[in-house]
Design brief:
elongated, single chain, 17 helices, mainly alpha
């Protein structure tokens, strides 16, 4: 800054010396000079005045050039200082961010270190507790081992008792088995004796039954003997009575005697028979008696055997009873021995249960010892890990504190550089302003001198200038375009259809007469000629543009070389077609049929040609626009919302103020040896938070501009596609005209297709015209809708304007029909101004407070809008310098607005 002040002071001194030299009197004149001048007073006066005027003019020119050079140099220095300021501000922002992040990380690491220390203490406490538990459980293990050993001894003793009791139980079981075997043997013998007794008893019973049967037979025989005896007695009696009767009837007749004799003989035979029967019965009785006696003897013998068997049974029963008693005794012994064995078993099991309990107690105590040891080891490991964490977190915190300190120092250094650069920039701008003022004063003196010595050329009258501007070729073309559109898209197609319908009906057309056709075609011819002239002038101007031209002029010249050359070819073709239309109308009026046909064919050919040319141009435009839109979409900001909440310049100004506060705080913070206080840190963090919020707002403005650009490209693609479709239809119509006139096609297809193409293109033209008129009317009805939200070129401060007065309806309607007037401040212009404000360099007042990263994103948007260095015939540095030049702001804003529309 001191160097700039010294340089500015030296130049001021130099300027003062130059002024003193000009205004100081010349050297004293000699007598000879006086004599000479007195001799020729008029000539001397004349020569002296002319020489003095020339010298003053030269001095003023030198002063003007020196002041301009100085202003240029100081502006360059101001731009360099602005870049340094912006770089330092960006560095300060980054370093304060690094410091804040490092501070946050260090605080977090220190907090973690404290937590790890707490973990270390807790682990140590838990380790001591685990070690105490381990000792306690080790004592319990020893006690459990003693109890287990005693229980094992008891188990061994009880096992011996159980073994002895088992042996005694086995002996008792063997005795019982022997007794049971003896019982079994005696029982079997008793059963055998019982069987034998039963057999004897059965035999006795059988023999008794036989004896009884024999006795019964004997009784029956005796009864038979008795009966036979009785019968025999009865027969003897009858025989006696027969013999007595026979004796009585001895004197009876022979027959009676004979019957009596027969009866006596029969009775005698009966007596003999019964005597024989009695004898036989007696013999049978005797035989049966002998048999009965014999059987009775056997019965008695069997009864003796029965008594013997019964005695044996009783003997065996006694043996069984004795054996059963022995069994009972053996069972009592076995039961006693079993009880003794069961008691011994229970004692052994109780001892084993006690042993198991003691072993489980010991195992549980050992497990607790193991757990306590593992817990102790785990707590030792946890303590070691926590100590390592403490060391690591302390090292991390220390490293972050060093980073924070370095970043704070770097931020403070950057802040001081930024302050110094800001002062240097202010001094340089002040010096540049003074130098510019001196250059203006010198230029004023030069102009005054020139006006004194020379007669100024008369300026053109104001009315003539206004007339030339209002009725130039460009404005004449704009004024004639609506009528040309009405004719081309309305009356001409409908007139052709009317003529075709009238010729089919063999009557004169009521609409689309030859005179009307000649008038309309003449108007078309004139407007096309104006368009051809404008394109030709534009093409010539583009071709004359020097190759070393840079900036928007270079890009526009390159675009004009392509666009104007295509326009010249298209308009030339259209002009030929319009001329043929005029000739065809004239031939129709004159009745020259051949001329009408030739003109119609020519019109069809030219219509097809320029429609093909326009269609090809529209197709190429759609392709390029699609590429442009895709690039815009690819680089669109997606992490913020595309909104415009506040005036952009207000956000930028507030960002500049907060950045200045942040610079002061960073510089003050870094200058403290003890480090920043908590209040300073909080204040710095609040400033950074506000800066971050303002940066987000700027990115939201940029995202909104990106979305607007994408929307413009989408609309352009739609309009170009409609135009392409209309020209394709119009090309088909031209071809059909040629075919119809050649006699190949005899249908009204050509007028119909032509009318369709005219309707499509006419609708598009009406939409464009209506939209333009609506925007012009809106600029009057709502003048503040799209008013500027950033500083314009030359402004140093921004003040939000109040609400402007709305224009009346008739004024808005009048403005809407002013087709030659362009909207000075619409949405596109506003978007271009905001894009430039975000992309401009720090030397430009409007871009002074834009962060470097957001400026880079905005310049990326410029590249997507095809405002790149190559199209401006610049290298990267020249392109960046042009964005950092305050005097190119207006040019850049207009350039961006054109690129948004193209």
């Amino acid at each position: 800054m001191a160097a700039l002040q010294a340089k500015a002071g030296n130049r001021a001194v130099t300027t003062a010396i130059q002024r003193a030299t000009v205004t100081s009197p010349g050297p004293e004149t000699t007598d000879e000079v006086r004599a000479s001048s007195s001799r020729t007073p008029e000539a001397a006066a004349s020569g002296s005045g002319q020489a003095q005027g020339e010298q003053q003019q030269d001095d003023a020119a030198r002063r003007k050039q020196a002041a301009e050079d100085e202003a240029k140099d100081l502006k360059k220095q101001a731009g360099t200082a602005a870049l340094t300021r912006a770089d330092a501000e960006a560095q300060m922002w980054r370093k304060t961010g690094v410091a804040a992040a490092a501070r946050k990380e260090a605080t977090a690491a220190e907090g973690e270190a404290v937590k790890s220390r707490d973990k270390t203490d807790a682990a140590e406490r838990q380790r001591a507790e685990a070690e105490g538990r381990e000792r306690d459980w080790a004592v319990q293990v020893e006690e459990a081992e003693k109890a287990r050993s005693a229980a094992a001894t008891t188990v061994s003793d009880r096992t011996g008792d159980e073994t002895a009791a088992g042996k005694r139980q086995a002996e008792a079981r063997d005795g019982l088995a022997d007794a049971e075997a003896e019982v079994q043997r005696c029982t079997e013998e008793a059963e055998t004796a019982a069987k034998e007794l039963a057999a004897v008893e059965a035999e006795v019973e059988r023999r008794r039954k036989k004896a009884e049967a024999t006795a019964k037979e004997l009784a029956d025989a005796e009864a038979e003997v008795e009966r036979c005896t009785k019968e025999s007695d009865d027969a003897a009696e009858a025989h006696r009575r027969a013999e007595a009767s026979l004796e009585a009837l001895a004197s009876a007749e022979d027959e009676a005697q004979k019957q009596a004799k027969q009866a006596a003989e029969a009775a005698h035979a009966a007596v003999e028979t019964w005597a024989t029967a009695v004898t036989a019965a007696k013999e049978q009785v005797v035989a049966l008696q002998r048999k009965a006696e014999k059987r009775q003897g056997k019965v008695e013998a069997e009864e003796d055997r029965q008594r013997e068997a019964e005695a044996a049974v009783r003997e065996r029963a006694g043996a069984v009873t004795s054996a059963e008693k022995e069994v009972d005794d053996a069972q009592d012994v076995l039961r006693k021995r079993s009880d003794e064995f069961a008691a011994a078993t229970r004692a052994r099991e109780d001892a084993e249960t006690t042993l198991t309990t003691r072993e489980e107690t010991k195992a549980a105590a050992e497990q607790q010892v193991s757990r306590a040891a593992a817990d102790r080891e785990r707590q030792e490991n946890a303590k070691a890990a926590a100590q390592q964490e403490v060391a690591r977190f302390e090292a991390t915190a220390s490293a972050h504190r060093r980073v924070e300190k370095d970043a704070r120092e770097a931020a403070g250094a950057a802040a001081r550089v930024r302050q110094q650069a800001g002062q240097d920039e202010a001094v340089a701008r002040e010096g540049a302003t003074e130098a510019t003022k001196r250059a203006g004063e010198a230029a004023g003196q030069t102009e005054q001198t020139e006006q004194t010595e020379q007669t100024a050329e008369p300026e053109k009258p104001g009315r003539l200038k206004r007339f030339s501007k209002a009725f130039g070729f460009t404005n004449l073309k704009k004024m004639g375009d609506p009528g040309d559109t009405v004719i081309l898209r309305g009356t001409a197609p409908s007139g052709a259809a009317a003529r075709a319908a009238a010729s089919d009906a063999h009557r004169a057309p009521a609409f689309g007469t030859p005179s009307q056709q000649v008038f309309e075609s003449s108007h078309n011819f004139g407007i096309t000629a104006l368009g051809l002239g404008n394109d030709s002038r534009g093409l010539v101007s583009a071709l004359k543009t020097p190759k070393d031209t840079q900036g928007s002029a270079a890009h526009q010249a390159d675009k004009d070389k392509k666009g104007k050359s295509a326009g010249v070819l298209t308009n030339a073709t259209m002009l030929a077609g319009d001329g043929m239309k005029v000739g065809g109308g004239a031939a129709t009026k004159s009745g020259i049929v051949e001329g009408v046909t030739a003109a119609g064919e020519g019109v069809g050919v030219t219509t097809g040609l320029f429609s093909v040319g326009i269609g090809a141009r529209e197709g190429r435009a759609i392709h390029l626009t699609s590429q442009k839109r895709d690039a815009l979409k690819k680089h669109a900001l997606k992490d913020v919302e595309a909104v415009r909440t506040r005036t952009l310049q207000v956000v930028l100004d507030r960002l500049g103020a907060v950045n200045a506060e942040l610079v002061d705080k960073a510089a003050a913070e870094s200058g403290s040896e003890a480090g920043p206080t908590a209040e300073q840190i909080d204040s710095l963090d609040r400033s950074r938070a506000e800066v971050a919020s303002l940066r987000t707002e700027l990115r939201e403005h940029l995202a909104s501009a990106q979305q607007y650009a994408i929307h413009k490209q989408d609309n352009k693609i739609i309009k170009r596609a409609v135009s392409l479709g209309g020209n394709v239809v119009r090309t088909a119509g031209g071809i059909l005209v040629v075919i119809t006139l050649a006699g190949t096609l005899a249908t009204p297809a050509a007028p119909a297709v032509g009318a369709t193409g005219a309707a499509v293109l006419g609708g598009l033209a009406a939409y464009k015209g209506g939209k333009g008129g609506y925007k012009r009317a809106e600029s009057v009805r709502h003048p503040d809708k799209w008013r500027r939200t950033t500083m314009a070129q030359g402004d140093t401060e921004f003040t939000e304007a109040g609400e402007e007065q709305k224009g009346s309806g008739w004024r808005a309607a009048l403005e809407a029909v002013k087709v030659t007037k362009s909207i000075e401040q619409g949405e596109r212009q506003l978007r271009a101004q905001e894009i430039y404000a975000l992309a401009a360099g720090p030397a430009v007042p409007v871009g002074r407070n834009v962060p470097e990263d957001i400026r880079a994103e905005a310049r990326g948007l410029l590249l997507d809008l095809k405002c790149d260095p190559a199209r401006r015939n610049e290298n990267a540095k020249e392109w960046s310098d042009s964005l950092n030049d305050p005097e190119q702001q207006e040019d850049w804003e207009k350039y961006i607005a054109k690129q948004l529309a193209s």
